Amino acid sequence: EAQVTQNPRYLITVTGKKLTVTCSQNMNHEYMSWYRQDPGLGLRQIYYSMNVEVTDKGDVPEGYKVSRKEKRNFPLILESPSPNQTSLYFCASSPQGYYGSPLHFGNGTRLTVT
Amino acid sequence: SQKIEQNSEALNIQEGKTATLTCNYTNYSPAYLQWYRQDPGRGPVFLLLIRENEKEKRKERLKVTFDTTLKQSLFHITASQPADSATYLCALTGSSGGGADGLTFGKGTHLIIQP
What we know:
Largest sheet of chain B: 6 strands, mixed
Distance between the termini of chain A: 36 Å
Number of strands of chain A: 11
Radius of gyration of chain B: 14 Å
Low-confidence stretches of chain B: 95-100
Oligomer: heterodimer
């Protein structure tokens, strides 16, 4: 089944403890992206990757890192999480990152930072 | 500044009627407009894409219109069913391409279909 898989689904952590949220897609998509969704603010892009070894900042990149060493994987790294990073995170992919290519989303990771 | 506006208030529709959702935008020249459905706690699911040179697009009970003069898209669900209850998001891609890296989402409209 074609899908975007995120892990974990739920994560509770403490301020400053490094964490990684994994994202993997099995559709051979070139483009991958991370979003966070907060009440009243909607979906906001954190980072995106047009292809392997190519990443770029979205609208809200502060406090996050990403890497794209393989086409299928795009992990999101929080080096020193803070409570304002408590949010619902989504990874998404599309065949190509241009010309309105529709996004396929994962089922989300709900992160709580205390 | 660029803005995408969708009704923030929930839209209540009786089962069997047509639900119409609105997406207005300012300071964009989108080449493409997309609509997604999102259920609580789940990722958005792509529904329809319409290009700037298309006036209307249909898929089963769904219809999308795109008026670049009014800077508005309308999303219709005909013969609505309780299972259509969800939040619907519109998203724009800029005319400069950059495709999904320039995809910006509205905050969504929560649709409730009453049996």
